[in-house]
Amino acid sequence: MAAIRGAQLGARVCLIERGRVGGTCLNRGCIPTKALYASAMALSACRGAHHLGVDTGEISFELSRAVSRKDEVVERLVSGVERLLKANGVDLLSGDAFIESHERIRVRKGEGTEVIGAKNIIIATGSEPASIPGIEADGDDVLTTTEALNLTRTPESLLIIGGGVAGCEFATIFAEFGSEVTIVEYLPTILPAEEPPVSRLVAKSFRERGIGLHTGVTVESTERVDEGVRTRLSDGREFLTEKVLVTTGRSFNSGSLGLDGVGVVVEEGRVSVNSRMETNVAGIYAIGDVTGGMLLAHVASREGIVAVNNALAQDNGKDNKGKDMEMDYSAIPSAIFTTPEIASVGIKEAEAKEQCMEVNVGRFPYGANGKALAMGEEEGFVQVVVERATERVVGCSIVGAHATDLIGEVALAVKAGLKTADIIETVHAHPTLPEIIQEAVEDSHGMAIHKAGRRRR
Ligand SMILES: Cc1cc2nc3c(=O)[nH]c(=O)nc-3n(C[C@H](O)[C@H](O)[C@H](O)COP(=O)(O)OP(=O)(O)OC[C@H]3O[C@@H](n4cnc5c(N)ncnc54)[C@H](O)[C@@H]3O)c2cc1C
């Protein structure tokens, strides 16, 4: 994103990549997981079809075909990015980058070395699965997310270490594929960053789907045995499963870039930046996972746009059109592909309390919405957080079908500082799921039409 925008703004851009373009997101992150999630949802739809009057006969599933389709999707997107880079005149240099000075980079590929000069450098080297003590991810039996995306046979049983976003997404996928899935999470709840009623609903739904949840306990060790992998927990329990998937944490790709030598401040692997994505060294910027902020693709992309604009705004070349920009993290949506889906934006109810902000909370269930019922998707709700004094919508959590698509409307509202009246007075098509958002906002005034209860004064 930064490379293409830089070229669009008139700069000569070189992109150095040691693997394939598209990074983690396209090759081993967002896109491959969502391609497998689509297979899981197709299976789920087949299994639930009887309820809608449709009988499918015996349902069978072949993971190797789902993985091949996933590979085709990835290939299509990666080659699309390669074409876009070319069309925009970005020089793509293959190899390992090492920053020798604030305007000189050495690129190593095999035996060869090339040195290039640049007025501005943007570090976007991302992150990798982190290892944890006592657990060696060998890639065969104890997997990281990267290997889990390339299994060609569904494991009979899978123990997932970590009940965060990645752990819960993989649990959803493999439980639907037919594995017996167990999650072990150190904190008292899975998905601890979500609103408590959201995490509770997903935990209940997981249990109903047969996913075993063990929270408030750590994994001490894993051991390869003849029958699979034996996992020992801190409370003495042991699990024997065919595979183990480690989803706890990422480490940042900053160690081998030569940042010490050029004096860029790095804290625990994270490259330090300000809101303009500048490091402490003039002309060197950093964006995305390597800065250790919100590890999300759309955050990395936005930071890339901010960094490249700032870099080119400094550079007074007559064709360069960069402008000064700062990152705004107040309206970053998040999307979690579990069953049910989860999405959120802005501040949560508890955060509002911590900030001493007086808020009204509105909530509306999927079960009272015509479209959700017609679809057979009555599990879930929308919860909005509204600043009482200004009536601005400052946060929202959605759990339920298509939550990840629905959050767009509220992300716009939070970013634009819209008030409750702006959403309430916008006519929402009927019957559609966005009506749930409208009614949740109405409920923050105690005025949802399809919800019984006392009017708030
Ligand atoms: C399983 C999984 C699922 C995910 N799902 C989602 C999702 O649904 N939504 C979402 O928003 N985010 C998701 N993420 C997170 C998302 O993938 C990352 O936040 C995003 O890719 C970060 O982008 P980046 O550009 O900072 O780094 P990366 O995408 O990691 O790209 C860094 C690139 O730099 C290259 N590189 C590193 N060092 C060097 C060097 N010295 N020289 C040359 N090249 C180098 C690497 O090869 C890599 O291609 C997921 C991540 C994982 C692991």
Task: Give a short summary of the structure.
Helices cover 33% and strands 24% of the residues. It has helices at 2-8, 23-28, 30-48, 63-87, 145-148, 165-177, 196-208, 259-262, 297-314, 349-354, 370-375, 403-416, 420-424, 434-443; strands at residues 14-17, 91-94, 96-101, 104-109, 112-117, 121-123, 127-129, 142-143, 157-161, 180-185, 212-215, 219-225, 228-233, 238-241, 243-246, 250-252, 266-267, 270-271, 284-286, 334-336, 342-346, 359-365, 380-387, 393-400. Flavin-adenine dinucleotide binds next to β1, α2, α3, β3 and α9.
How would you describe this structure to a colleague?
The chain is an alpha/beta fold. Helix content is 33%, strand content 24%. It is built from 14 helices and 24 strands. The strands form eight sheets. The protein has a five-stranded parallel β-sheet. Strands 20-21-24-23-22 form a five-stranded antiparallel β-sheet, with helices on both faces. It has a three-stranded antiparallel β-sheet with strand order 3-4-5. It is globular. The structure holds flavin-adenine dinucleotide.
